[in-house]
Every structure is written in structure tokens, then in C-alpha cells.
Design goal:
With about 290 residues, the protein is an alpha/beta fold. The chain has a single domain, classed as Rossmann fold (3-Layer(aba) Sandwich), CATH 3.40.50.150. Helices cover about 35% and strands about 20% of the residues. It has eleven helices and nine strands. It has a seven-stranded mixed sheet. A hairpin with a 2-residue loop joins strand 8 and strand 9. Helix 1 packs antiparallel against helix 2 and helix 5 crosses helix 6. The longest helix has 16 residues. It starts with 18 loop residues before the first helix and ends with a strand.
């Protein structure tokens, strides 16, 4: 069994990309979606601010601003297509564990709001119920960089509305903060490959996800994968984008299988490569094991 842990650090953009191109492109996608309208000069102001801070954490989340992975998950797509048939979303609690900037979090809140409005609840009330039932967590920084949800507030211009949804703390406090056995679903969006291979961080991550779920609750998520597991230690060369922990489908299934039954792995193409071979986008799901 591999042993893996959380590790912080500024990670490089893939070759051919940069913050100077990724940030404006992502902000343009958000504006085109109708989600936000930026004041004149705001893109330039934000880019300058981030450069003054020494860059940004986890470049990949900036490359996919406005292109949330949760909408690509096969099971989530089926649920949306069926209109969440048979679900009572007014009572479902969902935890975005490793939320990054919170783009997936906001999508979940939007879909719950839409469902509740279609069920007859006034939109303002529906939005409040959705926000109460969704929580998102990301790890607190131990350096001078911004905590990742702060980037989300900058990009979505919704700090006051969303500040109670997001929690920033140490992983060891997740269960205490979220509550044992309180969640119907855990979403894990591009988290596992960002956990560095130094001690037992992935085991802690899986254990925490298990602990906060109700009996019968499920985990859904996505991570980068490869034909074999590749673990990266120490600093990387400029332009080396490969995340610290890229698992094979078999190893990912083994990890999740320690705490979850009915684990399924769905493989999808990925545009990134390692040693001339393509990485994979791994979508996964599982149901909490009963003791």
C-alpha cells in the first residue's frame, strides 16, 4: 500500500501556459456564462495583485475556471439529466472536500437552488436552503500565499454571500468542523493528485471523507491518473506540471476500497502527458462501508 500525505508549495503552470494567459481566459469564461460582471480594469488589477504575491497556488484550478469538473462526472451527469429524480435536495447535505476556489461548490448550490425553485420554493428561500446544506473545505496555508477560497471570492465577487459556506483549517479538524455522520455526499474534485507522497495524508483524507458521511452516503470525485502510479518528491523543474501523486486506476480503487464499497472508476482522456504518454482523468464513486 502506498503512503501519501498533504504537501504545500507553489506549483508550476504547464509548458505553454501562464497566469498571464490563464487568469484572463478563465475570467472571460465566467463573464460569458453570465455568472459575474467585472468592473473595468479588474482583470489587470487582479493579475498584478497575484504576481505581486509571487504567483498562485495550484495552477490547474486557474486553467479550468468556468469549466467545473463536477459537471463531467458520469454519475452526476446522469443525475442532472434525470432532474434528480427521487431525490429530496432540500434535505441533502453535501461536502466539497478540497474545494479549491470553490467553482464546483457554487455549481452544487446553483443546481440545488434550481431544483428547489422548480419544487415550488421561492428563489431567495431556495438559495438560502442550498447554502445551508452545502459546506466546502480547503487546507489552511502555512506560508504567505492566499488560501484557495480567497481566489474564489476574487473571481466570483461573492465574498459576503458565500463566506459562511467555505471553511479553511487543518485536515485533522475536518470531522470536528463538519460533523461525524452528517453528510449525504462528499465531492472530491481534483484533490487526490495534489496530496504529496510523504506520509499518511491520503489515508487521512479518505478516513475523514468516510467519517463525515451518513451510513449509505457516497463519495464522488475526480483525479488525474496514469497507466501506473507515479509519486513525485521534492521541488520540480520549471514547467514540470505533473502533480505529486498520480495514481493508476487499480491503486485508486485500492485506496478507496479501504473505506468504501461498490467503488467504480471511470477513465476519460486527458490532454496532459508524462514521458510521452497521456495522463487520464479518473472519475470515481463509492458508498460508505457499514461497520
Amino acid at each position: 500500500m502506498l503512503i501519501i500525505t498533504m504537501k504545500q508549495g507553489v506549483r508550476p503552470f504547464p509548458k505553454g501556459t501562464s497566469l498571464e494567459t490563464a487568469l484572463p481566459a478563465g475570467m472571460d469564461r465566467l463573464e460569458a456564462s453570465g455568472r459575474v460582471v467585472y468592473p473595468a480594469g479588474y482583470q489587470e488589477e487582479l493579475l498584478s495583485e497575484y504576481n505581486d504575491q509571487g504567483g498562485v497556488i495550484y495552477p490547474h484550478i486557474f486553467l479550468r475556471i468556468g469549466d467545473p469538473n463536477i459537471l463531467k462526472h458520469p454519475i452526476v451527469k446522469r443525475m442532472i439529466e434525470k432532474g434528480f429524480e427521487g431525490a429530496n435536495l432540500s434535505e441533502k447535505r453535501i461536502f466539497d472536500y478540497g474545494c479549491g476556489i470553490g467553482d464546483d461548490t457554487r455549481i452544487v448550490i446553483d443546481y440545488i437552488t434550481k431544483y428547489l425553485v422548480e419544487s415550488g420554493l421561492p428563489e431567495e428561500d431556495a438559495r438560502e436552503v442550498a447554502k445551508q446544506n452545502v459546506r466546502a473545505f480547503d487546507v489552511v496555508r502555512d506560508d504567505d500565499m492566499l488560501n484557495t477560497p480567497e481566489y474564489g471570492y476574487d473571481l466570483f465577487l461573492d465574498r459576503e454571500e458565500m463566506k459562511d459556506v467555505f471553511i479553511v483549517d487543518e485536515p485533522k479538524n475536518v470531522v470536528k468542523l463538519i460533523g461525524r455522520g452528517t453528510q449525504d455526499a462528499v465531492w472530491s474534485g481534483s484533490v487526490i493528485h495534489a496530496i504529496g507522497p510523504d506520509d499518511d495524508g491520503l489515508a487521512e483524507y479518505v478516513d475523514n471523507a468516510y467519517a463525515v458521511l451518513k451510513n449509505g452516503g457516497g463519495i464522488f470525485g475526480t483525479t488525474l491518473g496514469y497507466e501506473k502510479t507515479v509519486l513525485r518528491h521534492g521541488p520540480r523543474e520549471e514547467g514540470d506540471f505533473l502533480p505529486p501523486t498520480v495514481l493508476s486506476s487499480e491503486d485508486l480503487k485500492e485506496y478507496l476500497g479501504t473505506r468504501f464499497d461498490n467503488v467504480e472508476i471511470f477513465e476519460a482522456p486527458c490532454k496532459y502527458e508524462h514521458e510521452g504518454k497521456p495522463l487520464k482523468r479518473l472519475f470515481f464513486s463509492g458508498v460508505k462501508k457499514l461497520k
